[in-house]
Amino acid sequence: MSTQEEKQEFNITVYSENQIGLLNRIAIIFTRRKINIDSLNTSPSEVSSVHRFNIVITETEDVVRKLCRQIEKQVEVLKVYYHTNEDVIWQELALYKLSTDVIAEKISVERLLRENGARAVAIRKDYTVFETTGHREEIDNLISILQPYGLIEFVRSARVAIIKDSEGFNAKLREFERLEPGEDVIENEFLNDADKVFTM
Amino acid sequence: METQTIAKQETGEAAEKSAGSPAKEVTGSVALLEALITEGVETIFGYPGGAIMPIYDALYDYSDKLDHILVRHEQGGIHAAQGYARTSGKVGVVFATSGPGATNLVTGLADAQIDSTPVVCITGQVFAHLLGTDAFQETDVINITTPITKWNYQVTDANELPEVIAKAFYIARSGRPGPVLIDITKNAQIQKFQFKGYTPCKHIRSYRPKPIVRPQYIQQAAELINQAKKPFILFGQGVILGSAEKEFQAFVEKSGIPAAWTVLGAGAIPTDHPLNVGMLGMHGNYGPNVLTNECDVLIAIGMRFDDRVTGRLDKYAKQAKVVHLDIDPAEIDKNVKSTVPVWGDCKETLPLLTQAIESKTYPEWLQKFHDHTKQEIDLVIQKELNPTTDEMTMGEVIKQLNEITKGEAVIVTDVGQHQMVACRYAKLNKTRSNVTSGGLGTMGFALPAAMGAKYGAKDRDVVAIIGDGGFQMTLQELGTIMQSNINVKIIILNNRFLGMVRQWQELFNERRYSFVDMQSPDFVKLAAAYGIAGKSISERTNLPATLKEMLDHNGPYLLEVMVTKENNVFPMVPQGCSVAEIRLK
Q1: Which CATH number fits domain A90-156: 1.20.140.10, 3.40.50.300, 3.30.70.1150, 1.10.10.10?
Q2: Pairing mode, if any, of strands A127-134 and A88-99?
């Protein structure tokens, strides 16, 4: 059964209306089952008035499928998809604050930053802020490199993920707006389709 | 704001079209009441308070159009609305004030959510400028109720009201029904605005009440059914909620397949129907439980495989192919993996399936159910319904009641042993005759639910069957019954114990009766204090006449029946056991 299935990272993409309280409604679907959300990003999507959530959790596919159905059941949710890391292109953004003196003195820091694809976004007399984007391990790696040079502050964004096999949400939304929906706008049915999870 | 999008689509356009009725300036409260009238609301169960006073003030002028029942506690209000929704098939409506008024709704909301009961709750809220300041009687009712509502929304501007109420009713009643809570701040209740008339909601772009029926699944399901040697139908409340009783009966009769019901599905086809083989689950009938693990095709219709139905899941119907008909896609594969998922409203899917299957009978297979019934009669039913003991049993009370009501009454039950006994033995000829708290198991449900059930089915007898424990959880509603003269018949089956917990303590905790010995007041005197007629009996010989007296009485009546103290409900599937391991003693 599903319990034997292996847990892995899943990227859940939720298209929804922009409604106060919906974040809570979605969050409690996880917390009720004592599932931790590893990462959560919510922002306007490419379609005006439609919001997009990117949620990352580590679970078995069976659990993820059930969670997605519960999320899609919420009145203000338009559509939910889930994907493994292989099915998406994803990035996190990180900011690192270091003492400008240290950077000026130790050229090696500058070299390390260049090697790690970081760029300066603010340079002040007393501190400098660098930015990188990448996968979690890449960002973690730069932290450990910078730690010896007195990393003052660090912050990392939630994950954002683009679905490889997707044509966007515009056409889908027009389907939803019709009073009588077409065949392909059926809740969740794609979730049964293991071969081609994404139907857009 | 999402609602603004809808406003453009719905109310805005409609209001422009219906330019014949020009906008008039009214308060938010008046707009709310006008909306309720357009939605066909006749009865409201409620309790006033500070933050909902403007609505109650407006209601003063609407008493000819809207019947408001003053309950004694908000929990009673929402249970009454649930009872009303269950018997009438319409949306139950509740008014409550902010703070404690709103939090008192929580149990009822959770109950309505898990039992898919359409209810719209209107709560008052403090002025919008006071939100988040810990104002007097302020609670964050939206966040408190989020997990236990199908939808909720806080209105802070009267202009939002018509469209929000329209959405509330549409969401509560469509698809898989459920409770909706609308929290209205006091300023929005008072605020005057240009009311352009009320347009019921028909579409919300992000909400699909029911999935589209897929012919290929109907076809696959029909093939499985046609090839089956030992098929078995399980049906739940979905049949009733979908008003698909006729379609369901036609399916059962053409297919010739034995059918068993969940507690909430009781009455979807008559108890006496030859293919109705009984109740499923922990205290269900012997055959349906045992043979679940013997059938080859399991056809689940409008039921959600609750753990009380399935028992141990990894030993549940493993040999069977499963056809699952449900309107809620999230229920498919949630607990039991389906071979063929038949998405959709069973009112639409059942006729298609009936058309696609062959007309058949399964005499040998059906005989197996009868054989099991015979065993159950010998070991359980006989001594429950025709006891030789001095003291009365709960079962014989239900049996006597059946003989008088002939199965025509609405039976409302509370939670516990009496509930299981009533569900097992009550005769139900009609749909919407069984009102009980199935999913949440809310003690105290029956008395207020019976009041609402009576308003929802005014021409039917409503009999509430309640335990001595559950009755004392909401007995204040006797006041409502008195004031509104609600003609409900109350039977308290008094075993002087919290019987179900006692049963478990007897069976699983070596008779360590921990806090289940319950003392009760004189229930008849209590009823008398409320001007309600009543009688208490402990002799079997008095039972038929007293039951008849109760039903013939013009007005509410409370009958206490003293029953044997330590009786157990059997059969029983002990927790953690497979349905096949059901015990008869």
Answers
A1: 3.30.70.1150
A2: antiparallel
